[in-house]
Design goal:
The complex is a heterodimer of chains A (about 475) and B (about 100). With about 475 residues, chain A is of the alpha/beta class. Helices cover about 40% and strands about 15% of the residues of chain A. Chain B is mostly helical and about 100 residues long. Classes of the chains: A alpha/beta (about 475), B mainly alpha (about 100).
Chain lengths: ~475, ~100
């Protein structure tokens, strides 16, 4: 049996029955990383020795007969934007290349409290800005389904690592689609929880009113396990909400009879890839056969979402990224003459082109004379986008859409035209602006063998319902069992 | 019509503490111009009676007890410093001699 193929719950079963040890499990995944990651290039850092030591510790604990938490011994990967104490956290940027955090993010503390095994850090678009992982300052991550295609972004490394069985599951972050779009491109499940559901403490900030951490998994049961592990209130993040965390596994009943599935007209527009559109309609029919009902809903401000997002997100980013000044941590230019030159040169040499572009756009939108016309205007349109969803959820429990208007694209295809790259986030961005939970699950392949993703959007803090619907769909289909040849 | 001029790009770069070459400034101007033209579609909407959303959660101030708790040791806080002197971050001189 190939242990690397297993889901978290399958691994749990073998570990609990002591048919396999955590050390064997972790060793087999590390071996596969050694054989395959040279092609996929999902990891920026692999912490092999620490992972094996952790696994041995879990095996010793299990030998004592003590009851162990659900993630004990499960090998996981972490997007390189989440702080890990003593392990380099680069954000795939030159400016943070040498940075070794002195503390763990809250999600990392929670995973460690469950005795999960951390295999290493995964590649991403620099500072999570991008949709293809091509903006990494270090190297490109390849799509495991077709190595000359992008894995999506910005959490491309975390998605590719799960798809290629280089970890059991992983964490990513999603500001405008950075979990859901790469999950769609790599043929796996990826969940962005409700804003406030998961602590952002220790997540390097991009756009603070939009960022949220979430899991990539091989199936929905795993997604429920991971969300339950990381969710909950954290005094270190004042935007994390003090609500009970339900047992998401208990929601996976397979019964979706009577659930109303909203289909927004505005998401089925001309220009969408015909193979993607066909796969989404087929998925909606499957949900109907399971007892769900289709409801027409309208999200009339959808055409304004990209413009709104690229003002709100860049304004917040320009402010968040002001901290990279070459003083306390990160890269500093050599031999600056004065303080101003130190700031300007360190930032010039440390940031890549997309990050500079967004800092510029955000600074412009916030600058004197433009604030009302751009930033305030965007915040008002954000209200209209939120209201669209509130109204739509009066008549449905979940909204179903494509995750991305196209299947994965080739390297270089959109790099020369930032606006075209931004437009590829059209179906995911509104969910962040409205603060809602959203999941992407595999729902088919193109004739060329590239994965297609279905997005399910839920009401605030109702992850349980989108997981329930995703799980019922998964039970009725085999897409999640397909694995790439890599 | 040009949405953003080269002089504005230079002004914004100064505000953002980013040094750009002339070539970068010109490319940046053209790219920002095309992005800002797309952003102009927002003006089709009348938002005069709409409240802005800065944050989706219905929370304002979040308070906690003012209690001292352990924080980073000085050495740990300085461990990532590009340059330091004893227990301080060192930066280029900011005052004239």
């Amino acid at each position: 049996m190939d242990l690397t193929r297993l889901t978290i719950h399958e691994m749990q079963e073998l570990l609990t029955k002591r048919e396999v040890s955590a050390t064997e499990l972790v060793r087999s995944v590390l071996d596969r990383i050694g054989r395959v990651d040279g092609q996929v290039k999902a990891y920026t850092t692999v912490t092999e020795d620490a992972a094996l030591k952790q696994a041995e510790a879990v095996d010793r604990l299990r030998a004592t007969g003590a009851p162990l938490p659900p993630l004990a011994g499960i090998p996981l990967a972490i997007k390189d934007v989440i702080c890990t104490q003593g392990v380099r956290t680069t954000c795939a940027s030159k400016i943070l290349e040498p940075y070794v955090p002195p503390y763990d993010a809250t999600v990392i503390r929670r995973l460690k409290a469950q005795e999960a095994i951390l295999l290493g850090k995964t590649n991403m678009d620099e500072f999570a800005m991008g949709s293809s992982t091509e903006n990494s300052a270090f190297f490109q991550t390849r799509n495991p389904w077709a190595l000359d295609y992008v894995p999506g972004g910005s959490s491309g490394g975390s998605a590719a690592a799960v798809a290629a069985d280089l970890c059991a599951a992983s964490l990513g972050s999603d500001t405008g689609g950075s979990i859901r779009q790469p999950a769609s491109f790599c043929g796996i499940a990826g969940l962005k929880p409700t804003y406030g559901r998961v602590s952002r403490y220790g997540l390097v900030a991009f756009a603070s009113s939009l960022d949220q951490i979430g899991p990539f998994t091989k199936d929905i049961r795993d997604c429920a396990i991971m969300l339950r592990a990381i969710a909950g209130h954290d005094p270190h993040d004042s935007t994390s909400v003090d609500l009970p965390v339900p047992d998401y596994g208990a929601a996976l009943t397979g019964d979706v009879r009577g659930i109303r599935i909203g289909i927004p007209d505005e998401y089925f527009v001309e220009g969408m890839d015909p193979e993607v559109e066909a796969a989404i309609w087929a998925a909606i029919r499957t949900l109907e056969e399971l007892g769900g009902t289709q409801e027409k809903v309208s999200l009339p401000h959808t055409p304004y979402a990209i413009a709104t997002y690229y003002l709100v997100a860049t304004a917040e980013a320009s402010s968040n990224l002001a901290r990279y000044d070459g003083v306390r941590y990160g890269y500093r230019t050599s031999k600056p003459d004065d303080l101003l030159e130190m700031y300007q040169r360190s930032r010039r040499e440390g940031f890549g082109p997309e990050v500079k572009r967004r800092i510029m756009l955000g600074t412009y939108a916030l600058s004197a004379g433009y604030y009302d016309a751009y930033y305030l205007k965007a915040q008002k349109v954000r209200t209209l986008i939120r209201r669209d969803f509130e109204r739509a959820f009066d008549t449905c429990e979940v909204i179903a859409t494509p995750t991305s208007p196209t299947p994965p694209f080739k390297f270089g295809e959109k790099m020369d035209d930032p606006l075209q790259m931004y437009l590829s986030d059209i179906f995911t961005i509104s969910v962040n602006l409205a603060g809602l939970p959203g999941i992407s699950i595999p729902c088919g392949f193109t004739k060329a063998g590239l994965p297609i993703g279905l997005q399910l959007i839920g009401k605030p803090f109702d992850e349980a319902t989108i997981l329930k619907v995703a799980h019922a769909y998964e039970q009725a289909t085999d897409w999640h069992r397909c694995t790439p040849a890599v | 019509m040009m949405k953003i001029t080269l002089a504005e790009v230079e002004h914004v770069a100064r505000l953002a503490r980013l040094e750009l070459t002339l070539e970068e400034k010109e490319r940046m101007r053209a790219q920002l111009d095309s992005i800002l033209s797309h952003i102009d579609t927002l003006n089709e909407l009348d938002t005069s009676a709409v409240e802005p959303t800065s944050h989706v959660l219905p929370m304002t101030n979040v308070f906690r007890e003012d209690e001292a708790t352990p924080s980073l040791a000085q050495e740990a806080a300085l461990a990532n410093a590009p340059d330091r002197h004893d227990l301080f971050f060192r930066v280029p001189r900011i005052l004239e001699e």
